[in-house]
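Protein modeling request. Please complete all fields; requests missing the sequence field cannot be processed.
Requester role: graduate student
Desired output: 3D structure, token encoding
Chains: 1
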Amino acid sequence: MDCNVVDLEQPLNVPVDENLYRLVSEYRYTWAREIDPEKKAELDSVLYPPSVAKAKKELKNVDGKEAMKGAPGGKSKGYSYTETSCLYNRIAVPSGFTYDGASVPRIAWSITGIRPDGLLRAAAAVHDWIYQWKGQLPRGSHAFRIDEFPWQDAIGRWRRKDCDRLFGRMMREAGVPSIKRKMAYLAVRLLGGLSW
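Delivered output (196 residues):
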């Protein structure tokens, strides 16, 4: 199984005033990672309860791949059981959310080349959304799924450090040059605590 997701898309927003932007429609950002193979056996006991584990023993050969009868997605979808599992996460920022983009003082625009909008837009929207809630996101804002299983609401609170790391990841995926990315990341690490 390939844990990659589609490229990052920028949200659609409109300026509200000189320093604020508003999302025109809901923005969703999805990322994934491979689950540690050492934890796979533990995960299997949760994902594949006894009824599915029994079906797992009845592997059928479908197009040269092992497929598990009765697994998520059903026989008609040809769900393949593999040793690799992916953990997907999704953050949804609602339409109408107003944010200040990348919080860059005007004087720093020419020095750093970092502006409040542009390639930073998606990262700033998600970062500001998580910061607004101080990591305790409202229900439906953060969801996860494993492989092809249904999306579920994530439980728990975001740590500021993890939010800032996601900001860095999104900037990288958006194509923000390395030096600008490092400056923006350093700024949120040093000054973001004032807004948390």
